[in-house]
Amino acid sequence: MNTALWIVTVVLAVGFLAGGAALILLPKDRYRALGANQHWVDDFGATQLKVIGAIKATGALGLVLPAGVVPMLVPLAATGLALFMSGAATTRFRRNEWRYFVGDLVFIGLFGFVAWGRFALEPLT
């Protein structure tokens, strides 16, 4: 189980770090042009997008960096990112973007798996 938790954690961390970096570094129009599923950025200002990117990047780093120092931060970061993704799912729901809404639910489930696994099944010591 520990191996599965690490695989899921690292994949999520890499993906969210890349996504957060893109939001921080790219201007809003350039980020919007990256893909067809980026219509949600129309609901937010440029500064809000930078903050969202910072939250994603910080959460991604929190999934892996404190593992050897403060292990309790790993499941807390996973829990925080699950809550963050529920905000993303709410935006998708409000915009009637159902295919992407399902993707957000998958992320919530994966972050829940990591949090549950690290809190209860295989805590880091």
Automatic annotation (TrEMBL):
<feature type="transmembrane region" description="Helical">
    <location>
        <begin position="6"/>
        <end position="26"/>
    </location>
</feature>
<protein>
    <submittedName>
        <fullName>DoxX family protein</fullName>
    </submittedName>
</protein>
<keyword id="KW-1133">Transmembrane helix</keyword>
<dbReference type="InterPro" id="IPR032808">
    <property type="entry name" value="DoxX"/>
</dbReference>
<keyword id="KW-0472">Membrane</keyword>
<feature type="transmembrane region" description="Helical">
    <location>
        <begin position="98"/>
        <end position="121"/>
    </location>
</feature>
<dbReference type="Pfam" id="PF13564">
    <property type="entry name" value="DoxX_2"/>
</dbReference>
<feature type="transmembrane region" description="Helical">
    <location>
        <begin position="60"/>
        <end position="86"/>
    </location>
</feature>
<keyword id="KW-0812">Transmembrane</keyword>
